[in-house]
């Protein structure tokens, strides 16, 4: 079936092209021609360098790249590669210091003492990872960017402890154990958020392939860092100042690269931070901002500044307003959630019905953001759709009125808002709002009827 290109060119004037093919978006291309005798001839039209480049693509990139991954994949992986190299060098310095502190090369040190320290370090690390996963596991999906950056900062902090541990003298063992606990948190937070980011990057249900190729890239980087470390260790061994200087350089590069990697991610899913930015823009300008704009503005650090929190899926007992006020608001309307807020604690509480869907949760968040916007943005520019309603709310401090009217306003705006969200590329079916598991069934209508009968 297949003949050479020279054979093809000799009889090219009488050939009929019957098929062409291309491997993805690569430069691997073939044409198939039919001769007058009925033979099929394959003509290889691939670029001269295509075989080598295709080999490296198949080894280190997911199949179908770049169509099979998100648009931010290349930029993220570039910065992730840089941070992995810097982190590997830093870890080599830490391992060198740890082994030195445990007595490697010291004739006075005992194997039993070193083994005991190593086991104690591993044991405390295991306990730390279990406790952290229990306490914060449900938050890692919601704030993958923040927790990824947190893991990187904590990783560098733990490495610095390991490097300085030999200076701790009799406290060496405890410093090492504390560093081990920190690294265990890094393992949980870093591994979980990496999985969340991999899920975002995989666009053909190819999460396993994306994850495997990410591992191959990191292994190659670590191999390069290992070769560099073999040359660096003899230079820094016993040189505390030089070791510290190299560690500071690698740490600075590591943190900068991680920050750029996290900022490069453009997630279409919704979390509370991205939803807050969307709603502020929507209430101010009357339009939904695009995915890239919101992700560029999304904060990746936690702040100590007091701010509103929205807690969804909470227990009925967490509502702070009086029961009569709650019945007044929700007794006459059909809603699959109950919402309450507290100005002093800057907290919005949402109680969900068992029938509440993701759409109901988004509407509850929209109502919550509307209340927060009214309270915090007095005098600021607002969209024409909301200007008259908000101006009335600024003059009112009635808690019940605010709940009732914000519900009506959110319900009216929500269908149009949802349509605009989908037009801008946001995924309203995948929302990571940190929703808890409480579901409540209520019926205020019977209580209202009973109250009316009592008054009669």
From TrEMBL:
Its main location: membrane. The chain crosses the membrane at residues 232-257. It comes from the Eukaryota. Keywords: Membrane, Transmembrane, Transmembrane helix. One of its GO terms (cellular component) is membrane. It is found in: Membrane. Residues 48-284 form the Protein root UVB sensitive/RUS domain. InterPro entries: RUS_fam, UVB_sens_C, UVB_sens_RUS_dom. Residues 290-442 form the Root UVB sensitive protein C-terminal domain. The keyword Metal-binding does not apply. Belongs to the RUS1 family. This is Uncharacterized protein. It comes from Littorina saxatilis.
């Amino acid at each position: 079936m297949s003949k050479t290109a020279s054979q093809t060119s000799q009889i090219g004037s009488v050939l009929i092209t019957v098929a062409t093919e291309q491997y993805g978006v690569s430069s691997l291309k073939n044409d198939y021609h039919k001769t007058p005798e009925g033979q099929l001839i394959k003509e290889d039209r691939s670029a001269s360098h295509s075989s080598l480049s295709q080999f490296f693509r198949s080894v280190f990139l997911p199949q179908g790249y770049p169509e099979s991954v998100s648009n931010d994949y290349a930029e993220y992986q570039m910065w992730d590669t840089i941070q992995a190299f810097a982190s590997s060098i830093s870890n080599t310095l830490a391992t060198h210091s740890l082994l030195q502190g445990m007595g490697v090369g010291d004739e006075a040190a005992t194997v039993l003492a070193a083994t005991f320290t190593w086991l104690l370090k591993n044991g405390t690390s295991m306990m730390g990872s279990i406790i952290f996963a229990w306490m914060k596991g449900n938050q890692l999906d919601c704030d993958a960017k923040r927790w990824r950056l947190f893991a990187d900062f904590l990783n560098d902090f733990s490495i610095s402890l390991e490097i300085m541990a030999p200076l701790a003298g009799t406290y060496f063992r405890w410093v090492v154990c504390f560093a081990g606990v920190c690294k265990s948190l890094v393992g949980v937070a870093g591994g979980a958020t990496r999985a969340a980011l991999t899920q975002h990057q995989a666009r053909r249900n190819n999460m396993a392939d994306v994850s495997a190729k990410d591992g191959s890239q990191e292994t190659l980087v670590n191999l390069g860092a290992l070769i560099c470390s073999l040359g660096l260790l003899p230079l820094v061994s016993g040189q505390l100042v030089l070791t510290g200087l190299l560690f500071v350089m690698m740490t600075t590069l590591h943190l900068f690269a991680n920050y750029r990697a996290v900022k490069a991610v453009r997630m279409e899913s919704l979390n509370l931070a991205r939803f807050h930015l969307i709603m502020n823009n929507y209430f101010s300008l009357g339009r939904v901002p695009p995915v890239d704009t919101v992700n560029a503005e999304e904060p990746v650090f936690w702040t100590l500044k007091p701010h509103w929190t929205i807690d969804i899926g909470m227990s009925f007992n967490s509502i702070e307003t009086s029961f009569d006020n709650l019945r007044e608001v929700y007794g006459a309307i059909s809603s699959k959630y109950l919402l309450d807020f507290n100005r002093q604690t800057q907290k919005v509480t949402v109680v969900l019905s068992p029938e509440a869907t993701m759409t109901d949760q988004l509407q509850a968040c929209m109502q919550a953001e509307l209340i927060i916007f009214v309270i915090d943005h007095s005098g600021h520019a607002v969209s024409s759709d909301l200007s008259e309603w908000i101006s009335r709310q600024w003059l009112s401090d009635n808690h019940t009125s605010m709940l009732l009217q914000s519900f009506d306003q959110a319900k009216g705006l929500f269908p149009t808002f949802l349509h605009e969200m989908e037009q801008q590329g946001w995924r309203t079916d995948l929302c990571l709002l940190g929703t808890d598991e409480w579901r409540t069934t209520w019926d205020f209508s019977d209580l209202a009827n009973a109250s009316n009968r009592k008054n009669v």
